[in-house]
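User: I'm putting together a teaching handout on how multi-component assemblies are represented. Below are the sequence lines for each component of a complex, exactly as they appear in our records. Could you produce the 3D structure of the whole assembly as C-alpha cells, so the students can see both representations side by side? Please keep the chain order the same as the input.
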Amino acid sequence: MKNQANPWLTSNLWVLGLGMLPAILLIGLLLYFTAWAFAFSFTDLALVGRKSVEWSWVGLENFERLFTRRGFLESLWTTVIFVFFSAIVGQSVLGFLLAAALRGSRSTLRSVVEVCIMLGWLLPDIVAAFLWSATTAQTGLINQLIITPLGLPPVNFINDYALPVVTIANIWKGTAWSYLLFTAALDSVSREVVEAAKVDGATPLQRIWLVQLPIIRPHIATNMLFITIWTFTYFPLIFAMTGGGPGRQTETLAVFLYNQSFSRGNLGFGSAISVAMLLIVGVLSLFYLRLLREPK
Amino acid sequence: MEENRPSRLTAIALTFMAVIWVSPFSWLILNAFNPLSTGQLEIPSVVGFDNFGLAVSGNAGRQFINSMLIAAGTATLSVIVGISAAYPLSRLKIPGRNAFLWTLVLLRMLPAAGVLVPLYFTAQRTGLLNQLGVIIALTILNLPFTLLLLKNFFDTVPIELEEAAYVEGASLLQIVTRIVLPMSRAGIAVVWFFSFTGAWNEFLLPLIFARVQDAFPMSVGLYAAFGQQGAINYGFLTAFSIIYAAPAVGVYFLLRRNMNTGFAGVGVKG
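Assistant: Of course. Below is the structure of the complete assembly, with chains in the same order as your input.
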C-alpha cells in the first residue's frame, strides 16, 4: 500500500491521530444525539406537562399513528410535489439551461446573470420569505405590474396559490447552487470532444444531449442528491412565509415535524416523523448513489 | 480561439430572466430608503437613510454583532476541526472511511428539528445555552459535510509534491502548512463560506438557545420584529433586512474567484 511509502505520515501517526480527535469527539456527539432522537420515537415524551417527566415507552405506536392519523401522508405528498417542482424541475433544469447558455461566454451578461441569481441564494431565508410575501401580496409587485394593468381584480397569491408561491420562491432562492455546480461540470468537459462532435455534424441540441450530458452524469447525480435532500428537509422559508397554511396546503414534512414537536409538544411523535424522513431520504440517496456509480 | 457567444435570442431571454430575478428586491429597496414607508410598493416622495440609522443602533446593532460572532466562530471552528481530521482521512488508508463519511452525511440529513431536543437538553445541562453553545452545535451539525468536502479537496493535491518536500527535509507541519493548505485554498474558502452563511442564516437553533433578547442574532431578531404587536415598522424591517443580507453577499464577492474553482471539487468524487 501507499502508506509504507509515506514516511512523513507513518512516523507521525500520533500527531495525525491527535488531529482527528476533536472531530471524532464531535461526531461521537452527533451519533449520540441521533441515537437519542431514535429512542424518543418509541416514547410518548412531551415538551411540557406531565409527560415531559413521566414519559413511558410505547413501542411502535408513534409509527402506527403516522399511517392511521391524518397528517403524515398528506404532508408527504405535499413534500413530494414541492421537491419535484422546486428542486428537480425548477432548480436543476433551470440551473443547467443557464449554465449551458452561458458556457464559455466572457461577456458582462454572464456576470450580470450570475450576480442576479446568486443574490437569491445568498439572501437569508427569513429575508427571502419576507420579500416573497411582499411581492405576492395583494398590493405587491405581481399584482401592481401584471394583474391590475390587465384589468383584473388583485389576487392574494399567498392565500389562493400557496404551494405554487412557495415553490417559485424556492426555485428563485436555490437555482444558483445547481447553476454553479453545472457550470463547474461543463467546464470539465474538454473542448476537443465538443469540437469533434461539431465537426461530425452534431446539432447544438445533440451536442448537449449526446455528448455533454453523459460526461457530466456524475455531477448530475451529485446535484440531484444534494438538492433533493435539502429541499426535502427545508424548513425556514415555508415556515416564515405560510407556517404550513392556509389549512395544511403548504405543510411539508419539515413544517409538520416542527408543528407536532414544538407547537403541539408531541416530542415522541415528532421524533417518529424525523425517523421516517430519515428513512425516506436514505432510500432516495441510495438510488442517486447507484446512478453515480453505475458507469464504472 | 472560438468565442462561445450566446445568440441574440438567448441574450434577450437571459436579460429577461435577470430582470425577473432581481425584481422582488424593488420593494425592499424602495421601502428601506423611504423614511415614511408604509410597506406598500411605491416610489418614495422623500429619500433618506433614517431607517438604516434605526437598524444599526441599540438592539439591532447588538444583534448584528451576535450574528457575526456566531457565523465567524462556527466557520472558523468548523474549518480548523475539519482540516485537522480531513488530512489524515485523505492520506491514511483507513478501511471503510468513504462509506463512513457518506453515512455521516446521510445521518446529517435528519431534519435539524429532530436532534434539537437532545441538543437542547445537553446544552442546558452543561450551561451552554448561549452563543458558544450555538457555535459548537452548528459545528457538530456542519462537520460531516465539512469533512467530506475537505477530504475531497485534499485528495486532489498530488502526493508527489509532499514526497518531494519530505526528501528536502520538511516536517509534517511544514508539509501541511506550506503545500497542502495553499493548494487547497479554494476548497477551504468554499467550506468556510458555506459554514459562515449557514450559521449566519441559521434561525431555529438560536431561536431555542438564545434565552434573552441580548443574545438574539439577526435572524431571530427579524422574525421577532415581524410578529410584534401593533403597527409593523416596514422601513426599519426592510433596512434591517438589507443589513442582515449584506455580509453573506459581501463575503461571497470577496471569495468569488475561489468559489467558482472550489465548486468543481464538490461534484468530482462520490
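A couple of points students might notice: DSSP finds 13 helices and no strands in chain B. Chain B has one domain: 50-268.
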